[in-house]
Amino acid sequence: MKLKADKKPAQAQSLNLPSDHAVAALKALLAQVSAIKLREVRIECSAPSRELLIVAYVDVYQHSHTLVCAVKESDDPENVSDALAELRYRAAELPSHATPVFIAPRVSAAAQALCSGSHAGFLDLEGNARLHLDDVFIRQRMSFARGHEPMAAQREGEELAGVA
Asked: DSSP letters along 84-122, please?
């Protein structure tokens, strides 16, 4: 398996959600299903908006499939709607069937509904996900005990602690 996620566009450096975390979360999600084989991951900038995209090439029961993922810092409805429009545009450019996926540090219930209504998957760094690939459906929902912070918040705290 050859991954090309090591070369990032300059814009990837400026995001609060590092592309490395988004790629790692996507790879971890896909690894949970033995029918899905990850072939390649690329980090690209989309043509019209110059936004960061992750394009993952997978095999599902030996059928090729492409995931086109928008990585965003926020899950506010306007941001999600813009990302979904960009993903539809990008997916239409690809020769094979592509599934749009919205990735953010946290994806609210409202953002999840927007993704579902647009037939797009979602993934966040708190462990929540919904993804439909041919005959495979992944739904993951994380809940946290009181007093326990989500992983994304813990990571931010660790990074900030190193700066201070």
From this structure: HHHHHHHHHHSSS-EEEEEEES---HHHHHHHHHTT-EE
- Residue 18: domain span: 10-163
The pTM (predicted TM-score) of the whole model is 0.75
What is the CATH classification number for the domain harbouring 99? Answer: 3.40.1350.10
Model pLDDT for residues 15-74, shown as the tens digit of each residue: 445 678 999 999 999 999 999 999 999 998 756 556 778 999 999 998 999 999 999 989
When divided into structural domains, the chain yields a total of: 1
pLDDT tens-digit map of 75-109: 999 999 999 999 998 888 887 779 999 999 999 99
Quickly tell me which residue has 């009181």 as its tokens.
146
Q: At what angle do helices 77-93 and 109-117 cross, to 10 degrees?
A: 30
CA end-to-end span of the chain: 39
| Domain membership flag for residue 1 | no
